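Researcher: Re-running this chain for the archive, since the previous output was lost when a drive failed. Same request as before.
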Amino acid sequence: MSERYKRLFALPKHLYADGSPLLIEAGALLKDSQTGRILAQIKFKSISPKIIKAVKISIGAFDISGVKLRGIDEYQYLDLSASRDSEFGQKNAVELPESITRSFSCECKSVVFYDGTTWESKGAEWKPLAQAQTLKEKLGALCEQYRRDTVDYADLVVTDDRDLWICTCGAINKKDEKCCHSCHVNKKILTDALDVKKLEENEAALKKAEAERKAEIERQELEKKKRAEEKKRQYIKIAKKITIISLPIVCVVVAFVIILNTIIIPNINYNNAVELMEDGKYSEAVVAFEAADGYEDSANMINECKDKLIKLLRKHTLACGYNNSFGLMDNGEVKATGNNNNDQCNVDSWKNIIQLAAGGSHTVGLKSDGTVVAVGNNSFGPCEVADWSDIIQIAAGGSHTVGLKSDKTVIALGRDDCGQCNVKGWSDIVFITARDSHTVGVKSDGTVVATGDNRNGQCDVDSWTDIVQISAGNDHTVGLKTDGTVVAVGDNYYGQCDVDSWSNIIQIAAGGSHTVGLKDDGTVVAVGNNENGQCDVDSWTDIVQIAAGYDHTLGLKSDGTVVAVGGNEYGQCNVSDWKNIKLVSKE
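Model: Regenerated structure tokens:
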């Protein structure tokens, strides 16, 4: 409120009566300094799964000494559409009849729902809810282990109060709800995890495992170093023998330099490249093979590494639609959460899926036999994929679907108002992406083609080279180069194309107006619109795959669990209970 209004009194926060479908979240008594009017502003919060249409309340009024004055027997909040967890009423100023009012009380008398049912007050007292203790207060340093054992956003100790319980995420649930309606985590798991002894044991086990892992990494690095030194000694020994049996010393030096540059160094680079390739570090292997400068079959090995890298990047086991999320499980079934207004999350019956793609309001799955399934909004026909076969990659745009065939040609169907389905002449394509109203493809030589809406320059990719992966945002396009750097074109209003400084990137994902990059050490970087926290990925570690939606971001961890940040209006970030999401195997 402006300075015109003076606050005289405030209600206790979070008032609740047994069985009520709402809380009296807050309330303030205000005095209008210009007119002298006394106004009550009250904020309510729905805790009901039903949508609230109207609320009737009564307001009691009291003077400075607590003597009861004339209040308001009935006040109605009408034409509401309050879903669970939404707040309302705070913009209504209710004028009280007596100017000497200095405090007030509030009771909810009845609630009308959109389905025609009502709730009537039984006269239970409106008292504040218990304040949940923070995990830091209860567990101290062990709260981090609690988060590892449960969910990484855990903040509060699960608290029971009357017929409600407060989740660790802060959501308020009914007593008969076994899982939190907001984050979907089981209450028993959250309460059982508060066992301090068990937390200490798990933390000790984690530290031991980390120490053993660190020791093993150090051992492997030492072994590699020893092998490299041994190879170097062998090459020097060979070179010395050549020197002894060669011509005069000047000739020997010249010969040694020639051998060093043409045989020894390229051989070392080549062997290092082979090791990197065997470890699945294909981008690093390409750089090392290039340093071998044509030694043996390094040119063929470079092509083989790029081919393996592209095949690896095509395996999408996470997918983000505009407001939903999908995860492919080890058994070929699919997890889904988020907006399902067009049945785009109805994937429970899918089997034998090996790859996922999510569009504006439809979802596509690639099966192990090369056929494709789709659900969701089919207004423009993006789900009519029943006759597709021999597909090796899929992509989904706003209302169109794209398929890459094994012969490296591309097919597309659905909305084509901007030419986003004009892919008939494409050939030698090895990777595809689509978003909103444009489609992009990578050719086997690392160049890129694009079709569709180009009003923001998102299709200006003709000059790109050495690309192994692409990702399309709503109005921008991002490309990953073999050397781990990233390029981007298109709308840059939020800085979503500011990726020039990125390095050591192994996967990219473009969202509505943000861009995400996975680094080779399992950490994640992001730029662009962060209005809903979709770029808050700095703390992520141990990530092996990423996906980006309109305003949310997903990360797959190496243990098969998933983390999420960003907009959660439709529950698209409710992935904390996902387990056994398929990890992409390196060939």
